[in-house]
Design a protein that fits this description.
By secondary structure, the protein is α+β, with helices and mostly antiparallel strands. The chain has two domains: 1-54, Orthogonal Bundle (Arc Repressor Mutant, subunit A), CATH 1.10.10.10; 64-136, 2-Layer Sandwich (Alpha-Beta Plaits), CATH 3.30.70. Helix content is 37%, strand content 18%. It has six helices and four strands. The chain has helices at 4-15, 21-28, 32-44, 80-86, 112-122, 156-166, and strands spanning 64-72, 91-96, 103-109, 129-136. It has a four-stranded antiparallel beta sheet with strand order 2-3-1-4. A hairpin with a 6-residue loop joins strand 2 (91-96) and strand 3 (103-109). Helix 2 packs across helix 3 (32-44).
Length: 167
């Protein structure tokens, strides 16, 4: 069960993975050791799967965002081609989708020449891929990995008030 304190911790870590346990504890009026214990428990339960820095694609020379719909000759339920696609360094995401296509692939490349090389030399070498449709993003309005967490009707503020009144 995830309580309001856990929701608060998860929200804080999604916003800033570098936030200290002391800062979270201060916001919740709890001991830092209790926050550390909860974070470890959330990690062990698989709710927190890792920590990473978000880099600027433009700053590292990967300014072109591309989505590729991929069709394969694989039997239903097989994902061998997707596993090969996922090994390509420029590939950020691979989603098995319903509809005419089999997979939706998100990738970042330097420019159209780089994209052409990836399509030809990497995707084109996977035998099971029958066809691709490529869409280039002209502008990104929103891009995030932050999940919209809801605390199932119990707001964090209510939890704070309950904790305050019980002290």
């Amino acid at each position: 069960m995830i309580d309001a304190v856990d929701w608060h911790i998860l929200n804080n870590l999604q916003t800033n993975a570098r936030i200290s346990n002391v800062d979270i504890a201060r916001k919740l009026r709890m001991a830092p050791s209790a926050i550390l214990e909860r974070i470890r428990r959330l990690e062990k339960r698989g709710l927190i799967t890792g920590y990473e820095a978000r880099l600027s694609p433009l700053a590292v020379g990967l300014g072109l965002l591309v989505f590729v719909f991929v069709r394969t000759d694989e039997k239903v339920g097989m994902v061998a081609a997707a596993e090969l696609v996922a090994e390509i360094p420029e590939v950020l995401e691979v989603h098995h989708v319903a509809g005419e296509d089999c997979y939706l692939v998100k990738l970042r490349v330097k420019d159209t020449e780089h994209l052409s090389r990836v399509m030809r030399e990497r995707l084109g070498q996977i035998k099971a891929i029958r066809s691709t449709r490529t869409t280039i993003a002209l502008e990104t309005i929103k891009e995030t990995a932050k999940l919209p967490l809801f605390d199932q009707g119990r707001t964090i503020e209510k939890a704070k008030r309950r904790r305050k009144s019980s002290n």
